[in-house]
């Protein structure tokens, strides 16, 4: 039985690799995750990048390092070469009481303002103010792009397994191979399980790879897997239904796209709607999947309250 089921799944994999659309479905989530990961560090990177020559006042170097990155180079020519590079780096030269800021003119507009402010504070340190300043940490800190971007991608890619099953069914109908299944030594249940196997495996693999690419720490992979399996089951049912009632790939994909509206509506509603309006979204399993993944990413989920988000 298992050998026949895996044979069907293996045949679908070979068939799918010949289809550009299925290859796109397999690779697109990983490429999007890579793009998101490339933009995420921008929120926490150093704000100012500067280059100084050896022998610059240590107090100046310490001040610049407190607000960004500092490169100490051999001489003025080395600083000039560094400033002319493609990234935004300002040269800072000190000669007695004179300070020179070197820029090549290609930096972002207004980015030199922070450098000027740092140097002004270094030259004229502010006097002590008659007040006490304290800082408090509210706990978890994560950029919205990392939190919601990865979450949306995880939930949405669970639909792709159903899409692949749908496209494989349409291909079977176009090539008229379904008739051969009726006379093959395989039961209808084995055929359905074999066809649907990729609808579970591919979303799970996508989810694990996306989590690794996004660089989340301390993620409960078992919890994420359970959420993805739950949504993949719904997507799989939709994929089977659309694949059965459509005879070509384009009409099947068009039908599947209609389902994207409630999916994205549920997730964006969870982000932007006030909490009092969230009951309007309780009907959507994708809303609960989004809330569950959000709780997992924020390390707020546990197995006792897994299907709801602790707020």
User: How large, in whole angstroms, is the Cα Rg?
Assistant: 28 Å
Q: Specify the overall morphology.
A: elongated
Using DSSP, what is the number of strands?
4
How are the strands of the biggest sheet laid out side by side?
2-1-3-4
Give the distance, in angstroms, between the N- and C-terminal Cα atoms. 46 Å
Instruction: Characterize the quaternary organization of these chains.
Output: single chain
Note the run of SSEs as H and E.
Answer: HHEHEHEEHHHHHHHH
The total of helices stands at 12
Fraction of residues in β-strands: 5-15%
Helix content: 55-70%
Mean pLDDT: 79
Spans where pLDDT lies below 50 across 5 or more residues: 307-311
Major sheet, described briefly? 4 strands, mixed
Integer count of domains? 2
Which structural class is indicated by helix and strand composition? alpha/beta
Which short descriptors sum up this protein?
alpha/beta, D-Maltodextrin-Binding Protein, domain 2, 4 strands, 2 domains, 311 residues, elongated, four-stranded mixed β-sheet
């Amino acid at each position: 039985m298992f050998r026949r089921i895996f044979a069907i799944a293996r045949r679908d994999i070979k068939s799918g690799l010949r289809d550009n659309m299925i290859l796109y479905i397999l690779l697109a989530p990983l490429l999007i995750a890579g793009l998101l990961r490339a933009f995420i560090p921008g929120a926490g990177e150093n704000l100012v990048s500067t280059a100084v020559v050896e022998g610059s006042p240590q107090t100046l170097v310490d001040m610049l390092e407190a607000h960004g990155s500092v490169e100490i180079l051999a001489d003025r020519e080395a600083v000039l070469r560094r400033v002319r590079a493609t990234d935004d780096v300002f040269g800072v030269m000190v000669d007695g009481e004179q300070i020179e800021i070197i820029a090549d003119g290609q930096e972002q507009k207004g980015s030199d303002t922070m450098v000027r402010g740092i140097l002004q504070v270094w030259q004229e340190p502010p006097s002590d103010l008659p007040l006490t300043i304290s800082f408090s940490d509210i706990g978890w800190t994560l950029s919205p792009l990392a939190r919601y971007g990865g979450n949306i991608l995880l939930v949405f890619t669970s639909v792709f397994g159903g899409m692949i099953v749908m496209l494989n069914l349409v291909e079977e109908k176009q090539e008229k191979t379904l008739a051969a299944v009726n006379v093959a030594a395989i039961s209808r249940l084995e055929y359905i399980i074999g066809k649907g196997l990729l609808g579970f495996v591919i979303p799970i693999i996508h989810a694990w790879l996306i989590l690794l690419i996004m660089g989340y720490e301390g993620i409960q992979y078992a919890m994420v897997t359970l959420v993805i399996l739950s949504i993949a089951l719904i997507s799989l049912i939709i994929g089977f239904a659309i694949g059965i009632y459509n005879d070509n790939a384009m009409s099947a994909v068009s039908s599947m796209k209609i389902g994207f509206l409630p999916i994205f509506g549920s997730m964006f509603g969870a982000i932007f709607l006030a909490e009092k309006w969230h009951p309007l979204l309780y009907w959507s399993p994708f809303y609960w999947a989004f809330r569950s993944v959000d709780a997992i990413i924020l390390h707020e989920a546990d197995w006792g309250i897994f299907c709801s988000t602790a707020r």
